[in-house]
Batch of 2 targets.
Target 1
Amino acid sequence: MFDKLSCKPVLTLLKVLANELLTQVCNRSDSTTSEHDLLCSSCSAIVGVLDKPTQSYKLAKLSLSISPSQGQPQSFDKPKWLSCHLLNSMDNQGLRKFIVTSGDDSPNTLLVWLFTPDVRVSSSESLTPEPARVAKILWKQTPAERQQALLDTQSLSEGEMELPFFELQALQRALEDSAALLPEKARRFQDWNTALLHRFNSEDASFD
Amino acid sequence: MTIHIYAEHLLNIRTLTIQVSLTTPSNAGTKATISADGGTLSVSHEGETASITLPVIIAGESAKALQIPAAPTSDLSFRLRLDDGAGALQTGQSGETIIPWTAASLSDQLELQCKKCNAVVLPRDQIQTWKDLPSEGWAEMMEFWHCHKPNEPHDHDHQTDKKGYSADSSLAITPSVGLVNATNFILAAEDCENIKVGHWSDSFHVLASRHSRHPRALKEPTLSGCKAILHGRVGILLPKKKPSGAEPVVTPAQAKGSLAMQCPLVLAVSLPDLEVYGFGRDVMHRYIPMYHNVTCLTNYLANQSLPC
């Protein structure tokens, strides 16, 4: 793997990334964002967002681990928190489809459909041999115009969900990465991408 | 692995679907068998065997060998009907959404740490009381209930602003009280430590407004393990040597210290996890571009199909 890293293709790809990043930045530079990220001052990982009206810290559980007074520190993989957020919204709003944005000026939005919220799967590509409890999700990227059109039609079948930008990125990455569990043929359904997000199990709910 | 097996147990319709992807079409020697205990599926094809633990134990009639279609195909799929009640007892899952770290499970003794570096962001004993926030959309429901109480004349004065759930009311944040919802903790700033406020795009805003027509010559950075390249206004760091053990050759802190002083933006690849990092002057962001993510990078590396 390493020998390949030092070759020209990586450099070319990084140049593409650099150009794209500049484009994204230019597109965002006029926007006014109401949220500011909270960064760990030790490693600069994003741990949450500043709630501007109250100047309080909104820390994301997916960026944290907890050390109870007794027992082992506990943390969970990001996909579990992301599925938890989607499933919680599904329960509260009675909806299965969500337009996920990171605010009004969101350069990128996802249309997420909780197709089968609770299913047990096994895959030979999984890192662990045990079957996993997942939510099967269909998703696609939606351009900003489409998003506006969806909201204008007052569609009752699609809810809106706003995530901080770093969580939206984490969601997209989790959706994309999980496709590796599926055989090639099962990764698309019509014009949707298929994804599997791991769900919390009952044993996750307590500290041991 | 050239044989990819995927199985899905749909509890409600008592069905197990199995999909198998082969690199070459199936033939007379291709076999798919379920173990005697009904817990494992093995697929053999052209001298190779792959197996998975099934998400549900297959008993009785279904447990015999799966019939491979006579016509050669590289995508096999099977659908098994399960006996009544199969799986429900085995999985023991009720289907409800489980939310860890709610107020009831938290104590004042706990400590919150950055998941990545374990830096303490909320010290022990800082929070005396944890409180669950109401579910999202509660304010709308309260307003509906307030305005449309059954058996009472409708009140159209809309005094919701006095009730604390109107659109312009905000949370009251009290130090030493921690508020919790499904995915966040909301804490007073003074209760936390090791947190700085920034925005990943702040430094890039500076970058976008600085138009440099002539890229500056880049000095050799002090970081010996890296090759530095200047691409337009963006610095690129590539690790030179093979990583030893789990430590990445380029750590975010190293890269930040070396190039960020010279360029407004630096992209770096860290090993062995192949994360792409973007560094600005004051903030570092693990940069996962929306369209070219790390999976993409890994795939490109594997295929070496990028034009140089």
Target 2
Amino acid sequence: MNITVIAPGSLTTVQDGGRKGYLACGMPCAGVMDSRAYADANRLVGNRPQAAVLEATIFGPTLRFDGDGLCAITGAEMTASLDGVQLRRGVSFPVHAEQTLALGFAAEGCRSYIAFRGGIDVPLVMGSRATDLKCRIGGLSGRSLRSGDAFATGEDGVLRPLKGLPVPAYPQAVTVHAILGPQDDCFTPAGLDTFFQTAWQLTPQSDRMGLRLTGGCIESIKGVDVVSDGIVFGSVQITPKGQPIILMADHGTTGGYAKPATVCSFDLPLLSQLKPGGTVRFVPVTVAQARQLAPHPTLIDRIREVLHHE
Amino acid sequence: MEQAHILPSGDRAMVVEFGKTIDEAVNAQVQALAASLRDRPLRGVTECVPTYRSLLVCFDPSRVRFETLARRLLSRCSALSNASSVPGRILTLPCLYDGEDLPDMAQLTGLDTEEIIRIHADRDYLVYMLGFLPGFVYLGGMDERIAAPRLATPRTVIPAGSVGIGGKQTGVYPMASPGGWRLIGRTPIPLYDPSRDEPILCRAGDRVRFAPINAMQFDRLSAQIADGSWSPATLLEGGVPS
């Protein structure tokens, strides 16, 4: 099935699980922001877990199909309709030739995922189909969707589709768990108190690279410059003005600002659904506590992983 | 030398830190651990990022516990501390020294441009780490006589392959990018090419040597790269095309 972009939405990109194995070369991972909604979208249409989908931000795209297929929408609650008929999130639904799928504004959450049975067939670049906007590779010529773009579905639809999956809520005031380190020793006790006691607000400058927060000033001992070291998805770095930035899917591989803490990986999907104006609080946990809090994969999840990560 | 220690970096990564400064001996320990993990991987480790003074180790918590991996990494470090450091490769990077900031550089350093070029090409630079952009090498050990402050107003686009100096550092832009370094030359070699089997040519721990070439050699190399007859292996052979 071919899909034509009638309207691209505010920022829609082709994404998958990201470009693995090149961090040591300075190559960002990119990939989806909300890995949970991404996994659900692929499960609904019976795709391999690593199939490429569309990630739509705040305002979704309008797409036209030239054949029959199966779709699913997960993540943010954007108004969605197929030829004018309202659609629900978290279900798989058939589409037919000449039909138009139109997504609108995200009422709840920030990012929606649109999966097509078979995945999106764009070339693999360094092992991934993810669009990396900064390096301008992956997806559709390394950029976000434009009107008139067209792409085809691929061959990742090898599993049985599901009718529906539970849809999580996406509150716009979230509390996330964070593990101290690697550079909490660069900050005063008062600075760390500010970090953990402030309801930080997401600014409009936030993007796939980082969520920029405002609401307080974190006091450091001797400034925030450190000798550059490695960064992960969820690292919190503090700018020279004392403002936190949570580094997200498109983060660079290294950085020279001190990082007092790192958001636990299982809270990143929730954070990815925060819109500018939303608030976030950090609660400190130890590595052992984080392990207890992490959702444990079920036996079925494990089997699925073994079967599909060749 | 400082003892290696572990710093948490969330629930799926940790930092093995060997020191807090930019120092070749500290970095040699980082490279030795990275090389050891490449040769004999530890269970659950998904990816490693060597930096100036530490190694970021990403892991899958469903395959190994943080505490277990931390213990194994530290014991790997102590086993390495007596071993000699890993010999890195030497990459010879042809460079046409025709950068538009050379005249300014001459004024800032009080040296003539030939002298700046001679000094710049006279050393092997350690690749401490890669970061900032795919294939961007953080090189150490530049002669301070050719150090010069960054431009007050960064350029909006610097072409891929540009060789520059920013403060006490020198480096190569692997892809077109905004930047504030002073441009002294350009290499025809694409350090980063996502369509190549080996997309990024340099690795942390390598040494880079700049070899001056003339415009004709630059054009010949560019033509070879364009028609596919150039091989990255030539960088290791040390020679410059005639």
